[in-house]
């Protein structure tokens, strides 16, 4: 089962993609929209952004006796 991204992770993925688009990267979709932020949001909603969010498991804190 794949976990859902948090709103912070979603924001980070969209903003990273919007930055790429603003620097001249080609969109993964065909659209008439010109703002990089909106294109990134559409790409995210369609699931075509090739970013993967990986989390490291939390550290175990062992109690000292």
Supply the key terms.
65 residues, mainly alpha
Give the structural class: mainly alpha
The helix/strand series, from N terminus to C terminus, equals HH
Largest sheet: none
Number of DSSP E strands: 0
Principal-axis shape equals: elongated
Helix content: 40-55%
Percent in strands:
under 5%
Mean pLDDT: 88
Gyration radius from CA atoms, angstroms: 17 Å
Distance between the termini: 37 Å
Count of alpha/pi helices:
2
Low-confidence stretches: none
Describe the structure.
It is a single chain. With 65 residues, the chain is an all-alpha fold. It has a domain at 7-46. It is built from two helices and no strands. The chain is elongated. The mean pLDDT is 88.
Briefly summarize what is shown.
With 65 residues, the chain is mainly alpha-helical. The protein has a domain at 7-46.
């Amino acid at each position: 089962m794949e976990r859902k991204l948090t709103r912070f992770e979603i924001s980070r993925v969209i903003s990273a993609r919007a930055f790429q688009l603003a620097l001249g990267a080609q969109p993964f979709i065909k659209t008439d929209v010109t703002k990089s932020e909106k294109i990134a949001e559409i790409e995210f909603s369609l699931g075509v952004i090739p970013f993967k969010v990986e989390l490291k498991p939390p550290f175990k804190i062992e109690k000292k006796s």
